């Protein structure tokens, strides 16, 4: 799969001297959902701002769908839609007018059918004649998404798109993201709701202190760095852990065995089964088995802590 965004040696240093991005290399595949994770101040919004032409880069290159964002700004920007964190639109315009105007900014002819479809997909159709100032916070967020989609972009950036919004909007938006991906749109998102990235993303990138510290396919990342903690409740106390290939920890009261497996899926399940089989062969009776898999959030926190 070819890259729709290619970032090479990207640097951004502000006038204050703060180096927000440090020699970033990143390729984003056409048609994927890519989640960019990182703590506050890591450089996520700056990176998005550079690619979208809102922040001037200090060094390096960014190619968006074949167009250099500096040398061929207009063509590159026409390929990109951005849903920013902050609401920035004319509060006294109607929903229909502001979304239609956003399309016109890219020199595209009016397309009422396309605008209607977007508004219906985002449950905004019955609000099309309302002024934006009269809308709820969730509805205003929907308008931002509609504006970003008005010019039919091939690349869509979602910068904390569900922060502070209701459950209904979150559900509608992720359904729409799935449809867009099916249509070939590449989606790059940042989110504090890591369970969303775990559910939606094809690949995960982690940025910290202006540096990309990891890029990995989601399932490969979970398999490589994920862990499962297994707790076995015993029917009778033991004085020492059973002698089996898997290292087991025995609680102080002798009533619980614990161990950790790395990975996910079938190999993980087989590992648990092997331990239980070995215990039964050694006549160790148990009354309960509990497993707790590490989430993407656990992996993310561990990665950031190790790099801090």
Description:
The protein is an alpha/beta fold. It folds into two domains: 3-222, 3-Layer(aba) Sandwich (Rossmann fold), CATH 3.40.50.300; 226-307, 2-Layer Sandwich (Alpha-Beta Plaits), CATH 3.30.70. 34% of the residues lie in helices and 28% in strands. The chain contains ten helices and 14 strands. It has helices at residues 44-51, 73-78, 95-104, 112-121, 137-149, 167-182, 194-200, 218-225, 266-281, 296-307; strands at 3-13, 19-29, 33-37, 59-64, 67-68, 80-83, 155-159, 186-190, 203-208, 211-217, 227-234, 249-250, 256-262, 286-293. The strands form three sheets. Strands 6-7-8-3-9-10 form a six-stranded mixed beta sheet, sandwiched between helices. It has a four-stranded antiparallel beta sheet with strand order 2-1-4-5. Strands 12-13-11-14 form a four-stranded antiparallel beta sheet. Helix 3 (95-104) runs parallel beside helix 5. It is elongated and about 75 Å long. The two termini are 33 Å apart.
Brief sketch in words of this structure:
This protein has ten helices and 14 strands. It is α/β, with parallel strands linked by helices and about 300 residues long. The two termini are about 35 Å apart.
Topology:
Layout: E1 3-13, E2 19-29, E3 33-37, H1 44-51, E4 59-64, E5 67-68, H2 73-78, E6 80-83, H3 95-104, H4 112-121, H5 137-149, E7 155-159, H6 167-182, E8 186-190, H7 194-200, E9 203-208, E10 211-217, H8 218-225, E11 227-234, E12 249-250, E13 256-262, H9 266-281, E14 286-293, H10 296-307
Parallel strand pairs: 3-8, 3-9, 6-7, 7-8
Antiparallel strand pairs: 1-2, 1-4, 4-5, 9-10, 11-13, 11-14, 12-13
Helix pairs in contact: 3-5
GO molecular function, one term: ATP hydrolysis activity
InterPro entries: AAA+_ATPase, ABC_transporter-like_ATP-bd, ABC_transporter-like_CS, ABC_transporter_ATP-binding, P-loop_NTPase
Domain ABC transporter: 5-234
